[in-house]
Design brief:
heterodimer; A: alpha+beta; 6-stranded antiparallel β-sheet; 3 helices; about 20% helix; B: about 400 residues; alpha+beta; 2 domains; globular
Chain lengths: ~170, ~400
């Protein structure tokens, strides 16, 4: 058979269904507790270490898990939790993770702030475990832990795309 | 290869509308047309369409690899210098790509001739992948066609497979945004179909119009709730994005785009003369030259003049001995031209027939056929289903 045996639509059709159960594969990443440990590991340059650490720090306030009650935060992260102006609690950033893709330049590192969970393990804001805080440098993590997060931001301008008409593909000539 | 007239299914328009296929009729003219179908042999499909598609796709990837490392070729492709590194890095990272459609002229006997590769924003996906498949299933069910009949169509299945991989490797639980311009029902239908496949692949999805995309003070693209956009499927051509106000933010943004920036090399008609330079004489390629270079004798006295950036047949002219014979007006006048040897479309019962061959990830995955009353296939053409029958 040159055609599929069975096809369905999930949102356009009348019988929605969703597939599930795909496994995540592993990916290499770099994990450091601070700029100094990043520099002493020697894998990436001093300036990149600083640049990425600052980026992680900027992301931290936006991606850190937020709790209404300090004790809930401490139970998950066991560290000192800080209170935001909004009254919510977030764990302190205790490290950062860099995930690069083969062939990419430093600008395409995905940088993820890390927190300390129980047993001294680094955790992402989504509570994915990404290695021990006692070990710095290369770790193997679940790919899903390194996905670029959607971060609450602000918008200064819209309408910078779409000035041309619809993009219907051509059918030759 | 035969064109066979056929009775339409009863109430098919109602069915189409209930399945989100709202553009089955465009501007009062039939677009989906099941008053006929095309019949191929398995050998015709596999040897004459599927194999050349796989081969030309590989030839194209070879050229992308060459082009991103050649300033001269990037300039020829009219990719603005500002984006050369952006396109190059996207290729070096092997950013995932999902789909493309090659257009062929094929009459069932002689080698299929490759017209062009719509590798960035191809449409007619829903009707090729889903509605055409459903037509055949129902025709067999209603016993209007025999059960052993087939169709070259694993497009949706492959697409979902590619999207599952994208989720695993890049997106995880982060939302993949789907976007198109506000003014086209057809584009919106295509994007919704893509999103449907993504939902089936387990991705978390959102929709945003191209015009609504925002930019944050940090230079990240944002949605209507001011959240950053981790990944976006855009049915909007790279060559437009490169030129527009937000283009300048592309290289610094973290958004993963689908199709990826390196597809800008392929969706571009300047790839056609470059292909001919590299693979001169290939049986599926047509001789092709840049307008501003001296053409080879193999171009012949009849040729097609195509703008480097053009869609839906706009601004294409048929030339003979330097004179314009047929022309289609359109907005694409400022991008330079390529000249391609004239290869007329075959005519079946008065219709000019064009084959669209789909590539999903890196594999040929199916066919869709369009017919037009004129020699140049335009947005007014009709989509006609096909079958394979021995």
């Amino acid at each position: 058979m040159k055609r599929s045996k069975k096809l369905q639509l999930a949102i356009m059709g009348t019988a929605p269904f969703v597939l599930s159960g795909c496994t995540d594969s592993a990916r290499e990443a770099l994990v450091y507790k601070d700029v100094a440990s990043c520099i002493s590991d020697g894998v990436i340059s001093d300036s990149v270490c600083r640049y990425e650490y600052n980026k992680a720090w900027q992301n931290h306030l936006m991606v850190a898990p937020k709790y209404n009650v300090a004790s809930d935060c401490q139970q998950d992260f066991g560290t000192v939790c800080q209170q935001l102006a909004s009254g919510e609690y977030i764990p302190t950033m205790e490290g950062f993770m860099l995930a690069a893709e083969p062939g990419s330049s430093r600008s395409s590192f995905t940088v993820i702030p890390l927190y300390l969970g129980s047993g001294g393990f680094f955790r992402t804001g989504n509570y994915d475990r990404v290695g021990s805080s006692y070990k710095q440098g290369k770790v193997i993590v679940d790919k899903k832990a390194t996905a670029k997060p959607s971060i609450k931001s602000t918008t200064m301008k819209r309408g910078g795309f779409g000035s041309r008409s619809a993009a219907r593909g051509s059918w030759g000539g | 290869m035969l064109r066979i007239t056929s009775a339409p299914r009863k109430d098919w328009t109602k069915l189409a509308e209930s399945l989100g296929f709202k553009f089955h009729t465009i501007g009062g003219e039939a677009y989906w047309d099941e008053t006929a179908y095309y019949q191929f042999t398995m050998e015709q499909v596999e040897q004459d369409i599927e194999d050349p598609t796989a081969e030309i796709h590989q030839m194209c990837l070879h050229l992308v690899d060459k082009a991103v490392n050649s300033e001269q070729m990037m300039a020829r492709l009219r990719i603005p210098r500002f984006f050369w590194d952006y396109v190059r890095e996207s290729w070096l990272r092997r950013d995932s790509h999902l789909y493309g459609r090659m257009d062929f002229s094929y009459d069932g006997k002689s080698p299929a001739k490759f017209y062009e590769y719509n590798a960035d924003t191809p449409t007619s996906l829903y009707e090729s992948a889903f509605f055409q498949w459903l037509w055949l299933e129902q025709m067999v069910e209603e016993k209007k066609l025999p059960p052993e009949i087939d169709q070259f169509n694993i497009i949706q299945e492959m697409l979902i497979e590619a999207l599952v991989l994208l989720k695993k490797q890049k997106m995880a639980g982060e939302p993949l945004f789907f976007s198109c311009s506000q003014d086209s029902e057809e584009d919106h239908g295509t994007v919704e179909y893509f999103r449907d496949c993504a939902v089936q692949a387990g991705l978390s999805t959102q929709f945003i119009y191209t015009e609504d995309i925002g930019i944050s003070p940090e230079g990240q693209f944002t949605d209507l709730e001011d959240r950053t956009i981790p990944g976006m499927f855009k049915l909007y051509p790279w060559e437009f994005m490169f030129e527009e106000a937000f283009g300048t933010y592309l290289p610094g943004s973290d958004t993963l785009f689908i199709e990826p920036p390196w597809k800008a090399v392929l969706s571009n008609k300047a790839i056609l003369p470059l292909l001919w330079q590299e693979f001169k004489g290939h049986p599926n390629l047509l001789p092709c030259y840049f307008e501003d270079e001296k053409p080879g004798d193999d171009l012949g006295s009849r040729y097609i003049k195509k703008p480097v950036f053009s869609r839906e047949g706009a601004n294409i002219a048929v030339m003979e001995n330097g004179k314009t014979m047929v022309t289609v007006d359109g907005p694409y006048v400022d991008s330079g031209y390529v000249l391609q040897k004239y290869q007329p479309l075959p005519v079946f019962a008065g219709n000019h027939t064009l084959i669209g061959s789909w590539v999903i990830a890196d594999r040929p995955a199916g066919m869709g056929i369009r017919e037009d009353n004129s020699a140049i296939t335009r947005d007014s053409s009709r989509f006609v289903p096909h079958v394979i029958r021995e």
